[in-house]
Amino acid sequence: MDITSIKSVLHDLSEEVLPSRFETAQQPEPNIIQFCLRGINNQTWIEVSWDSDSPRILTINRPEKIGTESTLSKQLRYGLKYMALVTIEQDKFERVIKFGFAKKPGDEIKKYLVFELMGKHSNIFYLDNNQKIIAVGKQIKSNQSSFRVVSTGSIYSEPPSNMKKEPSPNESYEEWKESISSVPESLKYCLINTYQGVSPILTKQLETFSNLESVEIMNKNIDFISETNLKKIYQSWKIWIERFNKNNFNFSIFGNFFYSVWFLKNEIINKDNIDQIDGLENYYNFHLKQKKIEALIKKIDGIIFKQTNLEKKNFKLQSDLLINSENYQLYKEKADKIFMTHEIQKQDIIKGQKLYKKSKKLKRAQNLIKERMNIYKNKLDRLEEFSALLDNLNSLKNENPTTRVNLLEEIKAEICREFNLRIKNIREQTKDASGLESSPIEINTPKGLTVQIGRNMRQNDLISFKFSKKGDLWFHAQESPGSHVVLKSSSQIPSDEDIQISADLAALFSKAKMNIKVPISLVNIKDLQKITKGGPGCVSFNNVEILWGNPTRGKDYIKKNLKKAI
Q: In the structure, what pLDDT confidence band is assigned to residue 222 with cuts at 50, 70 and 90?
């Protein structure tokens, strides 16, 4: 979050929450704290993150209740109980924010919350009136920083002073040009390295505001920029400083990816008039969810890859043992030859008995080895199914980010549970598990019947057994891992078109979706049985009919109809 956004959020907060009573706090993730303030008219929830990739302060809608048992949130709830937020301080272009709390407005400040939103150096501090640290987001030891040690019980010290030049509205064009021309770099880094409060996003905003994004002026060396274009940037720079100092803010999206808080309504084309509070919350929520989705996909992929290699290794070991066990007849024949000789010694008898014993042991081991091989083969098949579910989820982009995150979290939990894996979590969430459970896709056929599609093993199990009724039809790609698809035909007799689109969807949500046609098993629900010792979604069936599904047709259909279903 750039300094202009920070100041705009604090400006709105100062008008809205000063003074207000502290109510509660929670820590949903290791680097995020959320706390609630009650003013005269309403409640205000504030979220602060000291994550190195996205430090930020936002006003948010009431969040889900999660992370109330963390040590930091407990300390805030206990220490700030019945206290009032009476001051919000932030000095010009500094990224340090200080909230002051007193027993009531007008009293001496007793507690402070200090937020340092400075990239990888971001942190949160809970201080008493003597600036002693009561709690801190992350401890900093002496071997981690030569400037300051951060630990509970020590006295809080300010971060190093910013030695860059402070942007001034009184600076002339010549002075400004001389300041940024000291080192011949790209204009972007000349501004960043010279002035306080300048971030990559601000340089992008200045470029857009000056209508120079087409020539990518910020990436050009300052020595090769024309005087005309440089003056345009200077004029935009002056406008930014003026609006920053006068707290003249307005939220807008530009370039379909970036946002600004200082473009006025008539200066940028906005499809909608977006409120700053909602705009910032939605922006960060969307992009952070995308980041989390990418991380989860990478994590699950890694788990599947590692476990697949382990199961293949175990399977090969058993295969080698099976090959060896097939030599039991050779050991028997060797023993027979020993006892068929006319002159037999005691040591020959012992040797022959050992050969017979080894032969019998290998013969008995064959069945056990085959059983183990079946176990490892089933595990490899299950991993293929998980891989197919992950691939389908990754390829379908229509769902909202929250739904995708929940699905990925569930798939990861299912793999870990089924293969008895322990994934290190920084903190166990106390959120009710049922709140995290996602729902299967429901989509209507052309004739109005409902089709349910499982996105993970739990959903496959639910739609095949718990949600299904007599008369429903079950679809699955033949000899290929994928989702269970159920056509709710118990309500009325399905048409050929209903059955075909269900087969097309089963083909789309399978590992074979890149094929032109996919053979699909069609089974009546009454002929479907759950495999007792199998994991969720493991089924067997009788009386199967084979149809051909078209994945491309299924993809076109779901693109047109999925928005209505989500």
A: confident
